[in-house]
Specification:
The protein is globular. It is built from 20 helices and no strands. It is an all-alpha fold and 443 residues long.
Length: 443
């Protein structure tokens, strides 16, 4: 019996073209995190330059999160309707455009900056949601956890690049924001790769699916094996999603919220806490966040690898529990800035490191025809934590000038809450369907 097209994907080593797709999506997500971390560094500078209050700083950071919620939901659905590649290109154009406009804001225009961050967040919110299904639909099932997880594994390099950028330009926030235009170059690379073959199958265009598979396998189209004969599907709908996959959607939504709550609070407020609560100078904070980015990347790589070895659920539970322990350590043992920083390293290695598999596992809870829509909606609901977490921190800091008002008790209250959230997230994902080694068509 002749091998099917997807048997060929399973039986062969990765080609250069498959690696190109993975690398492109990795670079896109690094660019996304670079842009999102820029605002954390920018706010840490503007707390002094613009004399921001806790409310103003929290609003700017929360608006980035608000845009992410909108973007994840919108782009996830559009990726199922119009293609993963096309939606991904729109995401890049959106977040780069709003970032560039931010460079030209007048001083003290914190409200305008906050509104522009909504636009940036909308673009950023779809990057991971569109890229993970795109990679999953080109790679073999036996390594899908690691290979699709790689899209998220190297995201912390964006934080490292953001830290390097701040170390390079210091307190020049406009120069920092200007770096956000660089990812526009990715649109050229994206133009050179094909749309997902599974997307074309779902649209009933098997000829284009065969061309995409031939490109991925680096063989002539007439040598591509048989495609599934019943692959065409109706356009995705939320009604069908809720009716058929409500349980999986609830798990992804609640689990994402819990893990995002702790990790994003560190990403968005960590620089300001180190600088204004513990007294580290700006350039030292940038250097310390290089260490944070490396720890986060190691954690993400470990979770992506372990997910194919011991399973998705076991990996997420272990990482969630250890991440929660890091949050409780930050809450209880912060007599010095260095003790707090050590706890942050644990939080980011495990509590945020779980994102090496979290969204890939979330996408695997749903079939091909609604994968991006479901992942986008579930992650979008969960990403409300990107609004609540920074706003919660801003509320705790208070309404005065940030650099003069951060009370160390803020750390105790906030990180106790973040730890409880991560612990709940670890438990929630135990109820998800284990997908290690399973074909996408069987999900």
């Amino acid at each position: 019996m002749a091998a099917s097209a997807y048997d060929q994907i399973e039986s062969r080593p990765l080609t250069g073209h498959q690696k190109s797709v993975i690398t492109l999506m990795v670079m896109s997500n690094i660019a996304e995190f670079f842009d999102m971390f820029l605002i954390g560094f920018v706010v840490s500078v503007l707390t002094t330059a613009w004399r921001l209050t806790g409310f103003e700083a929290g609003t700017i950071l929360a608006c980035s999160g608000l845009g992410t919620v909108i973007g994840a939901i919108v782009w996830g659905h559009l990726a199922d309707r119009f293609g993963r590649k096309r939606a991904h290109a729109w995401c890049i154009a959106c977040f780069v455009g709003f970032t560039v406009v931010s460079v030209f804001l007048p001083d003290r225009a914190w409200l305008a900056l906050a509104l522009l961050r909504v636009g940036v967040g909308i673009g950023v919110g779809g990057m991971n949601i569109t890229s993970i299904p795109y990679v999953q639909e080109f790679v073999p099932a036996r390594h899908r956890g690691l290979l699709s997880g790689l899209v998220s594994v190297f995201i912390p390099l964006g934080m490292l690049l953001g830290a390097a950028a701040q170390g390079l330009v210091g307190d020049d926030w406009r120069a920092l924001m200007a770096f956000g235009a660089i990812p526009a170059l990715l649109l050229i690379w994206l133009h050179l790769v094909p749309e997902s073959p599974r997307y074309w199958q779902l649209r009933g265009q098997d000829d284009k699916a065969r061309e995409a598979l031939a490109w991925a396998l680096e063989i002539p189209a007439d040598q591509v094996g048989d495609l599934p004969t019943d692959s065409a599907a109706e356009p995705p709908s939320y009604g069908r999603l809720f009716a058929g996959h409500g349980r999986a959607l609830a798990i992804v939504s609640v689990g994402s919220f819990c893990f995002i709550m702790g990790g994003f609070a560190v990403q968005s407020w960590g620089q300001t806490l180190l600088k204004d609560a513990f007294g580290f100078p700006t350039r030292m904070v940038a250097l310390l966040f290089v260490g944070v980015s490396v720890a986060d990347m190691v954690g993400r790589l470990a979770s992506a690898w372990l997910a194919d070895v011991i399973g998705r659920r076991a990996t997420m539970f272990a990482f969630g529990v250890i991440g929660a322990a890091g949050c409780f350590a930050a809450a209880l043992f912060h007599d010095s800035g260095w003790a707090f920083y050590a706890a942050v390293l644990v939080i980011m290695t495990f509590g945020d490191g779980v994102f090496g598999i979290l969204n890939a596992f979330g996408g695997e809870q749903f079939p091909n025809d609604v994968r991006s829509t479901a992942l986008g909606l579930g992650y979008g609901i969960g990403a409300t934590a990107k609004v609540i977490g920074p706003a919660f921190m801003g509320l705790l800091v208070g309404g005065g000038y940030v650099a003069q008002r951060i009370d160390i008790a803020v750390v105790t209250m906030a990180f106790s809450f973040f730890g409880a959230c991560m612990l709940v997230g670890a438990i929630v994902y135990l109820f998800a369907n284990e997908t290690r080694g399973r074909e996408l068509e069987s999900l």
